[in-house]
Amino acid sequence: MTEAAPILELARRLAREAGAIQKQRYATELEIETKSAAVDLVTDVDRACEALIVDGITAARPGDAILAEEGSGIDQPGALLRWIIDPLDGTTNYAHAYPRFCVSIGIFRNAEPWIGVVYDPLLDELYEAVRGEGALCNGEPLRVSPERDLSRGLLATGFAYDRRKSEQDNITQFAAFLKAARALRRDGSAALDLCYVAAGRLDGYWEFKLQPWDVAAGCLIVEEAGGRTSDAEGGASHWSGRAVVASNGALHEAMLDVLRRNA
Q: Of 39, 83, 117, 164, which has fewest CB within 10 angstroms of its CB?
């Protein structure tokens, strides 16, 4: 058993348990509120899933730090491990009974990405990765696509919650990639988009103004599947979520070039 094994198993269990709540409550009446903007939603299911995950971590590993989207995390200065939780990635989809959402759990060790787990409860797909050990979906190895020509690439993106009032709205970049790639998708879950890059379903993905919980698991899964992740300049600040580019590696520089020319 590796050092990561019991922690990975805990993350798997909590992701599945939270996913079971999401599946049970899917397409039922929800309590829905707004946060930073009218399009930034939170539901009672988000909060129930976060409580389950945070309580499960603190019961099993009380010394670990937790950053959770809905604010119930626990700061532990000097903690070796930091769990970064999005209890329901794709809340707007979930609120509309649109079937693209998931649980995302990333674990950093000494401030470096170490373990990632993403669970899609409707498709029952569990994506996972441990740094240096590869990436899996339901136990089967993941590998990014071999595509080397951006014009044949299938890409995905998303738009920030402040798009109604901000001039930095990703519209210029979207238009540029619409011309450069074979096709674009916008499906409303950053974590699943990243996992689809890892699985070779997408050739690339970019987005701006995300948060660490959106990317902490998915970016690691992409890298462990043989892909590349970065910020929009090719650097490593993408773990903050503020600018994220993920690809099969072969298309990465071409994607960065489109972004630079349309900044």
A: 164
